[in-house]
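INFO  loader      accepted 1 record
INFO  loader      residues=284
INFO  predictor   begin
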Amino acid sequence: MRLKNSLYPYPVLADGRDDYNKNSKFSSEIHGKVEFNNVVISAKFNLNDDGLLNLIREGFAAFALHIECSKTAYRRKFYTRKFEYKVSIPVDDITDEIEVLGVVVALKRIDDYDNPNFNIAYQGIKVNIEKANILADSGQTILTLNDAVDYCNQESIFKVKKIHDEKDWIDLNFSQDEYVLICINESEYNTYMKLAKGVLKNTIMTMVMLPVMITVLNVMEKEKDEHEGKKWYKVISDKLESNDIYLDNINQTGDKSIFVIAQRIFQNPLKKAFSEIEMFPGEE
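INFO  predictor   done
INFO  writer      dumping tokens
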């Protein structure tokens, strides 16, 4: 995603090019952070050029983030007229390294464009800018996100066990150090294993894993002394704290409630479940 001088026969504001006078500047501050199962990329754009700023204000141009992950072939562009902007990407779409390019891009064709800050070689010359042409480039940022993993994978800190019992409910066992044991009777276990990897996997996630996580968070909050030395406790606790959520500061309502936190951990499974269910025709 690097800007190449030979590709642009019109003035572009960028380091390494002399198309604009030295007072015109464009840069971006790009940061990435893993928040539960999403990677949040934040950008702060710094633009010092009245001509380009006017194009953005008038709707002819915008700031844009070009985000790529070569290993997964993820490639998207996000546009904004704000100087500070955030993008959220599911970790399933990327690996631990992504490339981010901050630019100013034309949103529509601009005829006879002139900028008083053009280098003297371009003074008095009017250029035609096509839609999607890059007007300014802040350079490429490579973000390495080593912890961009699904840390609450059921195969890591949750284990589903079939029990030969006539109980009609799911039970939890917190005695293990490595994982939380989810105990399901034989009939429901077979159904769970069949559906959990099929087209209704998010619906099953909502029915089983969401209430399990809510219960786990409640146990972690109320029985800290008993479980804090266990691996599963530490994995969840560390991730919560990395997202500025602390067990002794969980609210009953709002975005820091256990119910909301559990949904965030599993990337809004309710929404995904509704989408799955809508795929199946039902009676009016």
